[in-house]
Prior knowledge:
Blueprint (H helix, E strand, L loop, with lengths): L3 H4 L10 H27 L2
Amino acid sequence: MYDVQQVNGGGEGGCVSAAEWDAFKQDVLREMRTQLNQIKKEILDV
């Protein structure tokens, strides 16, 4: 995954590139969708 210090700008580079930030956002959205789909499935299976 991503290093929190790097994402927060605490790494050696001092900032995260736009491409890295977009990749991070896409990864978070993908994980959120996966979790929401799992929750919906659990609710519907009850």
